[in-house]
Amino acid sequence: MIVVMKYAELVVAILLLSWISTGQAQAQNPPGQNIKRDLEMLDFIRGTVSENYYDKNYRGIDLNTWFRSYAEKLKKSRSDQESLTLIAAAVMEFDDSHTVFDPPYLKQRVDYGWEMKMVGDSCVVVKVEPQSDAEKQGMKAGDVVLSIDGVQPSRGNLWKLEYFFRYLNPQNVRQLIVRDYEGKSRLLAIDARFEKYSHPTPNDALKRHRLARQRNLDMVRKVSDEIVLWKIPRIAHYEAEDIDQILEAIKDYKKLILDLRENPGGSAELTTSILGCFFSRELKAYDRKDRSKVKPIWVKPRKKGAFNGELVALVDGNSGSGAEIIARLIQLEKRGKVIGDRTAGAVMLSSMFKNKYTLASVGGTPDPSFYYGVQVSVADLLMPDGKSLERIGVSPDELLLPKPEDIANKRDPVLARAAAILGANIDPEKAGALMESLLSAQSSQTKQ
After folding, report:
1. What's the pTM?
2. Is 142 inside any structural domain?
């Protein structure tokens, strides 16, 4: 807990220094700063966590003392951004992948023009948008990120950095130190682009889900006469009947590469539905342990049967939640081989709790209401060996990491290795081209 608390305080300190240096911080609460509102938000979160968190001992945190300490800090807040950061830091003390403050929606969306991920213990740039300031500044895929706004990225803090700088206090400029794959380091100051953002309506969400479902159904590719690739971008974007369509597409192949890389997971029900594609008998997936009971969750074979051929699963540091459960059960049941990077270690069952806040009227005209909330872990998931994957992840049977130069040149040695295990000779360049075709299809459908 001490490490997480220090990290949360470090990020708060960095943001406070940023506001002070840019003149955003003020000696007293500024006009419009609503400390009463901030305290009520914090109290709603404290009560929600108290009533719903899966561990009655709250991982050793004295809940009332902890939240009281943050209430005192909030009373001295100098801006809305500082208040949101303090509330988020209070929730981060749990060091829980699925217990997170959900702040009010920003009116603008920030686009930094580049994306990064952890590869082993290195933070690597994996994508640079054409014509972005990042591209103009010379950032390239394959660059290793040594520092982001003064903080060294790691497996433990990267998602927290992204969370702070995308959803709590987006920055106009991000200062980075990067190193190319030839070993040369350089300092970059990259401008962000801001766009107006409106929270999607139910119809927008339905349309996006429909497009995502179609994208998922298209994530099957022939590798050879015997081998088929099934990439699952996100479990949450399936529906139960989609799984049978996938089974129909892969049933005539003898061997399968299941690509779970970059997959953040999805619902427990869909996770077990996917697992039912690979097992011809009923078996336990995991135990669901909440604050009052332990309930076993079972995998049942699909009614149309299961794929019984050879299986290799691919994972990386962004494989989370349901993707990790699938990979680990494949290992435990010796159903196939898992290769790639250690997974995210983000495996809990959570619920989102929302609340509405209406500001006092000004001049007879009420300000708009806004929603905020907190996502809370309501159950831990214990694998059949009795162990939780939270903060641990799945260690692959074969650790294989793409090098920065592989990322720069769009080579995929992990997919190539999976094909080799199953008897096909595909070099990393061809494997990368195959994956690029899948990702291009995914990207084009997402933008529709």
Report:
1. 0.88
2. yes
